[in-house]
Amino acid sequence: MPSASAFANLLTVERRPAETFVLANGLQAIVLPSSRAPIVTQIVVYKVGSADETFGQTGIAHFLEHMMFKGTSALGPGEFSRTIQRNGGRDNAYTDFDATGYYQTIAADRLELVMRLEADRMADLRIVEKELVPEREVVLEERRMRIDNVPASLLDEAARAVLFGEHKPYGMPTSGYVDDVRRLGADDLLAFYRRFYTPSNAVLIVAGDTTADAVHKLAERYYGPIPDRSIAPRQRPASGGTNLPQGVTRADRRVAEPDWSRDYLAPSYRVGETRHAYALQVLARLFGGSETSRLWRVLVADRRLALSAGADYGALSLGLTSFGLSVHPASGHSIDEIERAVSEEMKKVLDGDVSAEEVQRAQNRLLAAAIYAQDSLGSGPRRYAAALSTGNSVADVEAWPQRIAAVQVADVIAAARHVWRDDGLVTSLLTPEDRQ
Fold this sequence. Notes:
It contains 15 helices and 11 strands. A hairpin with a 7-residue loop joins strand 9 and strand 10. It is of the alpha+beta class. The chain has 2 domains: 4-222, 2-Layer Sandwich (Cytochrome Bc1 Complex, Chain A, domain 1); 246-432, 2-Layer Sandwich (Cytochrome Bc1 Complex, Chain A, domain 1). The relative contact order is 0.17.
């Protein structure tokens, strides 16, 4: 452990009050009280996402997310959201690789209403062909807008398939393959719903102007009667794609200027050399997490080779994850120049050229973000949702600041040496159509 002086200049993140309980049917609940404003946010996150699909039925998790708004025995199509809006609230949902979440923000005295509505569709969703057929076109149009019409997104899909393995859980798109989505029917969606949408496979998070006792009483009333069903353990590969390193290139007439990126297979909190997960977060921040990071300072500010440069890493994955680097070259500078410059900066880190001061700056930026999240009814509860849907605990969330603060220079260098290897690498290049 570092000495006490190592923490002298680090921000302190106070523990956020959090109360937890588990209902008899297995539903886990977390209450994050805050009296700053008379509002509450409810999130119900299910431990299922697109990585739980099989090839041939891709897109089913996202399609089901849409159909969750299409009615129950008690509510007609669209009535869920209309009821929230009439009561001054807002609601939405999301699907990612490992989780599907539904959330509402509303006046505190309407908490019972949103609990009743959410519990209703957890227990009694109705999927009929009349609603499914037009919603399928909505789902496909969403894919066209967000993926097919965005060359960078198409390239990212191709790179993920290479990095994680074609037709493997993280190598298939969350939106699904178009042909798969077109084949999905009501029976497929209902089977997926009945398999995964059950209390013990869900987490209830309530944040805002309420108390643990109040939430517990309402949860018992509305979620408590829902019977549970057994869930098989989720599986994720412990390896990525084969024959790495590889390159992926997309030339597209819609692209005006080239973009370069590089992704490395990386451990998460759950899979791989998990001891590196916290150091990798610090590494991503100091190497490319802001305009004061190494990549930005050298490539953008000093050498003017690029218009932007960054790095990203997310540890909250049920399986392996990725460590990414991205650069938007400045006009007149080649991709070869970019690759050489990035490699030079990486080599410095790999050779041990990392200072305690820059590690500490990166840690403080991460810790500051955690402080800001505690005041948010959006990002704060979503941190718990992401953690608990991927096998982590409330204790892990609460210990995160201390674990980030404990990262030392040697840890950052070791993490870089573990991840920045050719045998887990995909390089991607997006170019205008006439510039291969």
